[in-house]
Specification:
48 residues; 1 helix
Length: 48
């Protein structure tokens, strides 16, 4: 029983760590797109 709990908590912690890295990567890509947008367009660089 305790082994299952330890594996569950370890898996949850690992998933949260991966989600943090994904969130950081998305933020960096968004910032690069925000800074590198064309100057002649309107304020939005995205389509939606």
């Amino acid at each position: 029983m305790t082994t299952l709990l330890v594996l569950l908590l370890f898996g949850a912690g690992f998933a949260v760590k991966i989600l943090w890295w994904v969130a950081i990567a998305v933020l960096v890509i968004w910032l690069i797109g925000f800074v590198a947008r064309p100057k002649n367009s309107s304020g939005r660089w995205y389509r939606w």
